[in-house]
Amino acid sequence: MTGAGAGAVPVYAAAMCAGAAAWLLAGRDRDLRRARLMLAGGAVDPEGASALWERLAAPVRGRLRREWLCVPLAVLVAVLGESVLPLAAGAVAVPLVGRRLRAGERRRERERRTEAVIALCGSVAGDLRAGRQPEQALFAAAAGTGGLGGAETDVMAAARFGGDVPDALRRAAREPGAEGLVGVAACWRVAVDGGAGLAAGLDRLEGALRAERDQRENLRAQLTGAWATVALLALLPVAGLLIGSALGAGPLRVLLHTPAGMGCLLVGGLLEGAGLFWARRIVRRGEGPW
Q1: For the chain, which ranges sit under pLDDT 70?
Q2: Among 35, 78, 256, 269, which one is most buried in terms of CB atoms within 10 A?
Q3: Residue 242's pLDDT is what?
Q4: Where is the Type II secretion system protein GspF domain (predicted)?
Q5: Contacts for 155 with CB less than 8 Å, ≥ 6 apart
Q6: Nearest of 169, 180, 187 to residue 115 by alpha carbon
Q7: What is the pLDDT of residue 289?
Q8: Prediction pTM value
Q9: Which pLDDT does position 251 carry in this prediction?
Q10: Nearest alpha carbon to residue 199 among 136, 139, 121
């Protein structure tokens, strides 16, 4: 193989890896549209074709999670640096990144449940003032808002068939983010046993939950600058590598093929990880349990 051909191999491989990463990031929309058109070209109607494609693509989409983007990126760096060390780093990064992404999904799910509880309080209070019975109002609100977690069906069944509504609400409150349902259960119990106004209690509870949510969002907005600083510190080593490569210094070759470079890479990676962990811990403490 000639020198030019050998030099072109890493470039071609890097281009292929970058293309694979871009394909994963793009979400394969073009392939989805093409498959739907192919399936809809025969006697199958478009809605049935779309549903069929979703069933076929669901297992693949479940396996191709976003954390697997670490693999093509690691292959790209391994090709450019002509070393297997980035492959090992990519394999280690996949579960770590997946854990981080799943934590973000759980946090968004908690927020959705909190919004659903607030909406339920307002909906039930409005229906009660409109003349509906409490059980009917709760059933309609639970069916309309959704997002209350696995015990949502228990709440709807208790409201529909005369079950123990406060107990069902307390069970639903065990879901992360749905803790406000404990207050709904207390309001319901007081209204049933003592004859107090359920709508007024739910209005006060809705106001308290909204105030807590707004306080949390304001705090998160104030911490945006701190998170931006953490992200900037994390990207500084990458920027240094890019600048070194642009100047022709070959930083990847030095880091991956010399003892001094590998030592610097190990120490720098440990310091980078410790710094990011410490900064994230400080910001998380300021942000609170959410």
Answers
A1: 1-64, 146-151, 193-196, 286-290
A2: 78
A3: 87
A4: 128-243
A5: 138, 142, 148, 165, 168, 169, 172
A6: 180
A7: 58
A8: 0.66
A9: 87
A10: 121
Which pair of tokens denotes residue 149?
A: 């977690």
User: What is the rounded (10 degree) CA torsion for 74, 76, 80, 81?
Assistant: 10
pLDDT at 204: 92
Question: What is the residue whose two structure tokens read 């070194």?
Answer: 244
Q: Name residue, tokens 């070393």.
A: 83
Cβ atoms of 148 and 181 within 8 Å: the answer is yes
DSSP state of 66: G
Instruction: Give how far Cα 262 sits from Cα of 82, 248, 266, 269, Å.
Output: 14, 19, 6, 10
Q: Residue 252: what pLDDT?
A: 86
Extract the tokens encoding 28.
Answer: 């394969």
Rounded Cα gap, residues 85 and 255, in angstroms: 10
